[in-house]
Amino acid sequence: MAGRIIRSVKEDIHPCVRCTALYTIKQFSKNLKPEFQDQYRDQVLPALTKAMDDFNYPRVQVQAYSALFEFTSNCTPSILNPYLKEIVTKLLKELREEKHMIKGETLKVLSAVAYSSQDQFAEYYSTVMPYLKVIMMTAKKELDHNLLADSVDCITMVWMAVGKEKIRDDTDMVVKMLISLQRSELEANDPMRCQLLQAWARLGKCLGEEFEPYMSVSIPRLLRSAKIGSYVLIPENPDSVDESDGSMRAMILGERKIWIKTKVLEEKVAACKGLYLLADELKEGLSVWIEEVAQTLVPFLNFQLNEEIRRVAASAMPVLLKSSKEAIQKGNLELSDESPFEKLCSDVLPALVKALSKESLPEMAAIILDSLEECMEMSGPVLDEDQTDLFLKKIMNVLNSRRKVGDIDVIKQTLQEEQKVYDKAVACLATFIRIQKPSFSPFLGKLLPCIQLMWEKDKIAKERRTGLRIFCDVAKQFPEEAFRQYNICLLFLFEACKDENPEVLEVAVQAIGIFSEFGGSAFKSLLKGAFYALKAVIDHPKALQIEYVMAHDAAVSALGKLLQFHREKLNAAQFLRTWLRHLPLENNLNEAKVAHHQLCSLVEVSDVELLGPTGKNLHKIVTVYAEILWAGKKLATEETVSQMIKQLELYRRRSIPSTWRSFMLSMENHLRRKLESKLSS
């Protein structure tokens, strides 16, 4: 279908048909990106560049430019590069013409081409820029603010592509023009109001720390536009509102119908984006403006009239916290009785929690959770009891109300968004438990019953696995409290070790290992059950099949932790034989490093029960070492490998030469060669 449409653009057929084909390519470019660009670039770009030359039919030309803009906006440099020279040449040719209708479209395409081609556009900069400056100054002189906005947009997009080294000779002229416009009274519907804000943000992004001289001019304007009001209209007579020109848009807020002044709201969105872009680029260089930018953006976390403003506000929070922290460290901010960073944390964290509790869109909830987790990592425990309670309610609501894949009327995209929120809620909760540890203990009684619901058999495997993981996080931070309030949890874990889902098995045995390490005396009465639960996973008929090996290795590692932390209550010789028989671990690399370090430590102290009567297990241990060394650094840390080699050298020196030779000859060739190589070096 796409091929037939592309051919219609090239063919000498009725202009209306070609316009329809071009419009379809535009929609494909927008809605099927980037796959459409990847698959059809060699057909689409030649067709569009040809249609750009159709001077007999201006409507076809305009549609070609519009489609080219959409296609190139979502291209990679490698897609554009073979056609870049031809496209730029044709665009410059159009800019020299006096066709006003095409000129605006030409500038838009040129900005998209420049930005998508990135540094590959640098070689065209000296050719393109003179045209753009002339168009900009002519448009300003003639008060053509639509063309002026398009030219400023194009110039700043080109600057973003080529970088600050290329643009030094041109910034002064453009900045003076921006300042001049800023001092004038631009009407509410003037396109330069938004473009002015975007231009400052892009210039800051391009110049980085060299933007500092312009901050006192640009940031106050961005702040003023971000705070702009009067964008809502509630008329006495709704029938009198004219929506035909697009300047007003109706929406339902609660039970009321209101009208939004679209241009005013667009200016607000552009200002918020600009503040975020500058904060992200300038970091601690934002210094004295950080607090005011934060005070402006924090309330917008709950801005119900525009999703984009909420998205920008949420994304900006961790950026502002990091900027504040680094500004203090570098002496860019003065310290008073209360640290500016700590004050910012006490404002931002509760606001993010409140926004999370009110957010209904899954995509937005995921962004807030991301920001919240990042802010928690920097801030430490700042939430009070009510805020903690609100956070937990929202998180557990997400975790316990997740829809199943089989639910009817749930489209795939919604499920994917909800899955993303679910995963981020789990990650955020784990961070929260660790960071809020000093004040979290009173909330365990509320959290643990919710986790128990996630373990139940009617839940899908991922939910059961998630419940186990969350409890692992709780047990690491609050071992004694967790077991006192919830000692029945181990019985659930033992039951989970019979699950048929290998991912559930893996988490269950990891949890047993964690509980054996952190559970203290509360764990000792259940050692026998723990051993048999682990043994069931280790001896599972499918234990060494690819789906189950991660669970198998985790179970062997957990068995080692039982020995390490509760040896006095166990038949150590029996446990060690079982454990050693399943070494080395070769699939679950994290667990492998833990288990192999433990083995090395036991050999170091000549553990009698590990070595066996008259050292009968030494042959097995050396073979395990050889397999670990053969695998390189995957199965053990550098420290463990170094310690193993020293132990092998010592064992070789103490052995009778004929015994050592016999032992080496009994090994597989590749292991023997690896061992000889390591010992000789």
From TrEMBL:
InterPro entries (alphabetical): ARM-like, ARM-type_fold, IMB1_TNPO1-like_TPR, Importin_beta
Source taxon at top rank: Eukaryota
Protein keywords: Cytoplasm, Protein transport, Repeat, Transport
Pfam family name, one: TPR_IMB1
GO cellular component terms, A-Z: cytoplasm
Keyword Transmembrane helix set for record: no
Biological process according to GO: protein import into nucleus
Cellular localisation: Cytoplasm
Main location: cytoplasm
Domain (Importin subunit beta-1/Transportin-1-like TPR repeats) ranges: 60-220
UniProt-recorded name of the protein: Importin subunit beta-1/Transportin-1-like TPR repeats domain-containing protein
Organism: Populus alba x Populus x berolinensis
